[in-house]
Write a structure and sequence with these properties.
Chain lengths: 339, 339
């Protein structure tokens, strides 16, 4: 007969609750107690039974975080923040890379793994709003997608943020402004929103947008930004005097191409990105950017999920949407060297 | 009575094996078949029973990857590669951030979650070799740690790679070479190995190492590199003419401090890092670095684990250790602008 929780408690000389705390990974267990319980678990070959735990209402203590790709510093940094935000609750966060593929996101939200995870934080890149959440796994969505969506949602106002970036360039007296990162397909909602914000700010200043200065990309990485900048420079006689790049890696790639072509940043071309990743603080020139408050995104995501899991909010409460603020970080790539 | 696999198969009009392939996330299932099975799963509320699946020897199709931190681009990029390498096997990879804490690594290797994962790829930062692998969960270790360790192991020869970085600086005629990233505690094995390689290369050229030019750090990020470089410059009359930084982020931080202090890289100070992260290809100056073959690390890690899981290698086969090659990428931060 397999060992039960109370066998472990009895052997370790602690309460069942203490064993449960260790098994669930809660942090407030003294190291020596944890070691004693672990020794008893090892000796008895005890394996926690997730189904039994769920029936007792304890949950697995494990949530999943699904992001399109960890190679993107924004998602890698956000993942780290969510792990930290979940720690005081004693949650383990398992991170999954979806590559933005609809079928992987579908597998997650369909609840196929609901025996091993309690809830899901998902940054969708492939699924349509209508497809999300048929499986009943408590889920919080991240990103600009799915306002009025089917689940709790923490988002940034991408259009407003993009307009802020563009207005920063306009205030510096730049008029011939390019945008790198336009969508290459209609489902790229994040980029569509940022492009709308760019256009709105330009229109607000009475400026027409030269269509040759709006450059679509198929990826959001440094290499995509470097290639897009090269394409842009090849197809216009006169370079733009400023560029709004829809992610920081795109901006860092574009700046690299400027250096290779002998263009001074920001003397010839001012460049601003969008993400607020750490890399931009240390690059040369340091990168002006729009920084969503990622610490707060992480905290809200965990808190909203905890309310659903802990019953603090009933399942009947309709999906909540929280918009997190962003900041303009003006640095050397638009302002020049600060001495 | 809960729905069973064969109920799903019958409703979808497919074989039990096909349902099993969908549930296990195998990739070679036609999209329309997958959709049919998914519809049947949804309609019947079928939940796969992991215990039953394990009893049938099928495993969960899920492995865990544990890395110290995703904020580190090296680990974020490596995680992405491991997810890709696992894909042809139909595995789902769940990623966990341990923050290098021994207790989190212990929880993982102790097999407490063996009901929901089949195996583990672990980059240990907190545990001692003697502590690893009491739980019997098939595990592959990554990193420089634990040669002759208790499990299969994919590693880089950190000392040899550090010596290569140092010799590159020596070949450029630099003699007054600093090292940023020395260990601040004896358990920091990776850094201890890199420091040993640095010292060996210096000694091999008959050069003494000025102890003030060996700078310990408590973290390996850009901010740590920037602060270490500032400390270094403050405590010597004459700056070093070259620096070997033990990670790329340390190097990028150090280069930023050089820019702030009016030092030209590489004119005044040549800088080389260690990681081969994408960021260094696009930085200005682009970053010379030691690049472990991370694609091969990812492939070996998955292959070794697959052999243990699939029974291709019996449990009686002692731990195997594979050393993956590295390359010196000489770029602008040591060679200057290439035109």
């Amino acid at each position: 007969m397999p060992a039960r929780l109370k066998d472990v408690a009895s052997r370790a000389g602690v309460s069942i609750k203490t064993v449960s705390n260790v098994v669930n990974g809660y942090v407030h267990v003294a190291p020596e107690t944890r070691a004693k319980v672990q020794a008893a678990i090892d000796a008895l070959g005890y394996v926690p039974n997730p189904t039994a735990r769920r029936l007792r209402g304890g949950g697995t203590g494990v949530i999943a975080l699904a992001v399109p790709e960890l190679r993107s510093p924004y998602f890698a940094e956000l993942a780290g923040l969510i792990v930290r935000a979940a720690e005081p609750r004693g949650w383990t966060v398992l991170i999954e890379q979806t590559d933005g593929r609809a079928e992987r996101e579908r597998d997650l939200v369909s609840g196929l793994r609901r025996h091993s995870i309690d809830g899901l934080i998902l940054s969708p890149a492939g699924l349509d709003a209508t497809e999300v959440l048929t499986g009943g796994l408590p889920t919080v969505l991240l990103g600009e997608r799915m306002w009025d969506g089917p689940a709790d949602h923490v988002a940034v106002d991408g259009a407003a943020a993009a307009a802020d970036a563009t207005r920063h360039l306009l205030r510096l007296g730049r008029w011939r402004i390019a945008a790198i990162g336009a969508p290459d397909r209609p489902t790229a909602v994040t980029r569509t929103q940022r492009l709308a914000g760019f256009r709105a700010a330009m229109a607000g200043s009475g400026l027409a947008v030269d269509p040759r200065l709006v450059v679509p990309v198929s990826g959001m990485h440094r290499a995509d930004g470097a290639a897009a900048m090269a394409r842009l420079l090849d197809q216009v006689e006169q370079p733009p005097d400023a560029i709004f790049c829809f992610t920081d890696p795109l901006a860092l790639g574009a700046i690299r191409t400027c250096a290779d072509r002998g263009l001074d940043v920001p003397g010839d071309v001012a460049v601003i990105g969008f993400d607020g990743i750490e890399e931009g603080r240390y690059s040369t020139p340091s990168l002006s950017t729009i920084a969503p408050n990622t610490g707060r995104i992480a905290q809200f995501a965990v808190d909203l999920l905890a309310e659903r899991l802990g019953g603090g909010v009933s399942a009947a409460v309709p999906p909540r949407a929280i918009c997190v603020e962003h900041r303009l970080l003006a640095r050397e790539s638009t302002l020049g060297r600060l001495r």
